[in-house]
Design a protein that fits this description.
2 helices, 18% helix, four-stranded mixed sheet, alpha/beta, 8 strands
Length: 121
Amino acid sequence: MNTLVNWFELPVQQLDRAVAFYEHVLGGHFRHESVAGIEMAVFPHVKPATGGALVKGPMFQPVSGGTVVYLATANLAAALERVREKGGECCFGPEVLPQGIGTIALIIDSEGNRVGLHQPA
């Protein structure tokens, strides 16, 4: 096993709005799918990298106080500006981490989820 985390899902209320938010903030395009009646938009990734999706369904509710997933960005300052442009907000950071780990920030996305952004050093 190369990594313990192999998939993540961010719950959304409005899938199109969430896709527009993340495409604007991170770039890339999402692949739309439906699995077991759940609408999904899959984050761009290349295997064996960990993948994930925005998910809309009755058992998925956005939350600002739960698990935090960190998404990679090459330019954190620019990503945070794009977060604000799409109605999100920065709720922590940017914070430079020790030992060359990089810089992080926490945002509240268009759906109300708390999500981390990480710019590697």
